[in-house]
Amino acid sequence: MTREKIEQSIEEIFEDISRIFKDIEDGSRDNLGVTRPSYGDGENFAHRYLSEYADELGLEVTKDASSNTYMTLPGQNRSAPRIIFGSHLDSVQDGGNFDGAAGVVAGLALIMILKKLNITPVCDVVAMGIRAEESVWFQVSYLGSRGALGALPEGALDAKRIDTGRTAREHIADCGGDPDALAQGKAYLSSSNVKFFVELHIEQAPSLIERDIPVGICTGVPGLFMYPDARIQGEYGHVGTPRVYRHDAAMAGAEFAMALDQEWARQEANGTQMAITFGRFHTDSAAHGMTTIPGEFCFSMDVRGYEPALIEHMERFVASTVQNIEANRNVKFKLGEKRAAAIGFTDQELEKALYESASKMNVPAVMMKSPASHDAGAFSAAGIPTGMVFVRNENGSHNPREKMSIEDFFQGVRTIIPWLLDEVTV
Amino acid sequence: MTREKIEQSIEEIFEDISRIFKDIEDGSRDNLGVTRPSYGDGENFAHRYLSEYADELGLEVTKDASSNTYMTLPGQNRSAPRIIFGSHLDSVQDGGNFDGAAGVVAGLALIMILKKLNITPVCDVVAMGIRAEESVWFQVSYLGSRGALGALPEGALDAKRIDTGRTAREHIADCGGDPDALAQGKAYLSSSNVKFFVELHIEQAPSLIERDIPVGICTGVPGLFMYPDARIQGEYGHVGTPRVYRHDAAMAGAEFAMALDQEWARQEANGTQMAITFGRFHTDSAAHGMTTIPGEFCFSMDVRGYEPALIEHMERFVASTVQNIEANRNVKFKLGEKRAAAIGFTDQELEKALYESASKMNVPAVMMKSPASHDAGAFSAAGIPTGMVFVRNENGSHNPREKMSIEDFFQGVRTIIPWLLDEVTV
Question: What's the domain count of chain A?
């Protein structure tokens, strides 16, 4: 297969792909940005739209119990372990169009290229639209992919969506899934029926932009633990109360956040990559006031890293910091339910192969750790060889200003082609 | 005048006073505690109730342009500078019954004792019900007393009540006041027509409780500056974004609060009394989420102290801390409008006289600084000899569990009697 022929195929589907992105965006645009709630309207729209598109392409379109969408180009041997390209189709509230969707469209683009080149792959090649990756909705990570992998964490089906208050179980059933089957925990996908999982995703930090390189090959997806609904109980009191008599819940929150932030700075100075985010961080709007010491403080916390020892260290650090602050500030922490997701170890051979594949297509690429967590982490935890390709993106993600150029997207797709052709042809 | 005769008079009015407290509380009780908004229903109730009570006692009841209530026992010389016992009748949302009201009832109790002892004082003796001391409602301190003293800060009449959104001007007019007269800034009370202002108030910290002493004689009322509506502008971003690329407004808020808290701890270690409170301290509930870096953070800040040099130092400290954090965290502070109130220097001769007065009545008392700001600060700033008597109180203030025993209240009243008798008899 010559590079010229491949390039020609890519150019011919360029227009189509631009239209897909535009249509998905239009179908899930709200006030400020794009909103595709997990198991909600915007997400349903994206699944339906891509299913119809795949159907027109002549692909097999199926669903699993999680209502994930599989758009399959059948292989010569239907029972051979398949290759899946996928990502999620949900988004945060007022997010961007590409966080998630780009990886599903990339799968379709790769399949379109195979078809254009008249290749019947040795195994099935699948573009997978995954449900419910964004943990902001159900406060659970990877609900869709972990459902498919038979690896839902305990209680996940009873988690309530923050905007509707209804359970994942109810929402999954509404979207045509089968929560009872999921509850049995059987794996629909596993290392025995999936050969590779490869996820293309926009980079959610501007490091590729800053380095002026369009593509990154992922060398690790962070594991994380989070407390979606933590509280600090103090005592409301008069603004003039001396220090020693205070039970100031907000100051306790500030001290806790700063202690974790300083630990992060220390870890980073030692070369350890990680991230800590307090997404919700607030006094109680029903009770706070300018001249009242806050008696209650609420926060969510997300801690992520790439090394099991670091995650364990941070869990101990959280516990000891809580203990110190409780003793010094006369308050009580209620961290609440803890959620966690395993570190995603990418496949080193696959990493190397994808890097070489990029250079075969003259795509400038670097090896890098994923700043964000991804469904790829769930596939990796299930023992499936997993890779990720990042595409440079301006203005971060989880906001409406997210910005990937379609040309860069195609550099990401190009990166994968030589490797895919090697895998699917004999 | 024998102490026995005084004690007998006190006992006889004890029952009446208990009833006053209970009726005021019943008239302004809401869900959780007592709510008497500045220039609002609960406050109006308390003014009306005490006016009727004073009328039955045969006192003169008058109002000024701020709609403060004056309940006057006429003196032998009506044009001699008067002695005022007063405090405020408003409360915070879900506050306690005694923060403010105790000082007005104490004034009535003292007048009842004079009447019981058949004393016609040499000058008018006044129980003053003051409006709008609690700055939480209009975000302005001492609206009522500064109105009476012709010392309203610029823009005070245009300040909006946080719950109704209507201006102080409108609310004052509703309550029978004359905002146009106030706008002219003429002083109704001044050092030429007020001889002393004495405020009895519950202590808002538990220091008297801890020392097992019922009464404190105030040696200073804090001055303050506050930013009712400060904001930090950052950028919303993905939870996985590396440290260097973040514009985390909440972490900037936490760092700012901790820097001020640490400065407070340093000042206190050097023996300087002060207080810092972040009453509102929060991410934006319409935009925050567990997996999004907060792009905006809101807070209110109140800094108070007893020395002009400290207040100036803290103002500079706030400015330099803002500058540092802006530079290190890629955020922008908008502190917004600043409000301030002068330090209240109590009258040293009056302090000494009140302390001696307490010992004459065998009331255990200590000299102490006021933890809270009070209307007394405004009278002191106007050059009127000012004193305060604190009564021990459990569970702090600005919460429904505020708790003063009526017996302790009477210890506070007893404290003042010998001094008052000296002043009003020849």
Answer: 2
Q: What is the pLDDT of residues B35-57, one digit of tens each?
A: 999 999 999 999 999 999 999 99
With 0-12 CB in 10 A as exposed, 13-18 as middle and 19+ as buried, what is B409? buried
Low-confidence ranges of chain A (pLDDT < 50): none
Same domain, B204 and B237: no
Is some CB atom of chain A closer than 8 A to the CB atom of B297?
A: yes
Report phi then psi at B102, rounded to 5: -55, -35
**How far is A164 from chain B, CA to nearest CA, in Å?**
15
Alpha-carbon distance A200 to nearest alpha carbon in chain B (angstroms): 16
Task: Please check whether residue B359 touches A, CB under 8 A.
Answer: no
Domain membership of residue A349 as a residue range: 3-221+344-424
Q: Is A238 on the interface with B (CB under 8 A)?
A: yes
Question: From the centroid of its chain, how far is CA B58?
Answer: 29
CATH of the domain at A305: 3.30.70.360
Locate the DSSP E strands across A268-423.
274-277, 281-283, 292-293, 296-305, 332-334, 339-341, 365-368, 386-391
Segment B320-346 shows an average pLDDT of 94
B327 pLDDT higher than 90: yes
User: Which comes out higher in pLDDT, residue A346 or B226?
Assistant: B226
B32 versus B214: the higher-pLDDT residue is B214
- A interface test, pick of B92, B291, B375 with most A CB neighbours within 10 Å: B291
Picking from B241, B299, B300, B302 by the largest number of A CB atoms within 10 A of its own CB, the best residue to mutate is B241
Same domain, B231 and B301: yes
The CATH number of residue A55's host domain is 3.40.630.10
> Is there a single domain that holds both residue A316 and residue A400?
no
Residue A366 pairs in a beta bridge with: A216
Same domain, B163 and B278: no
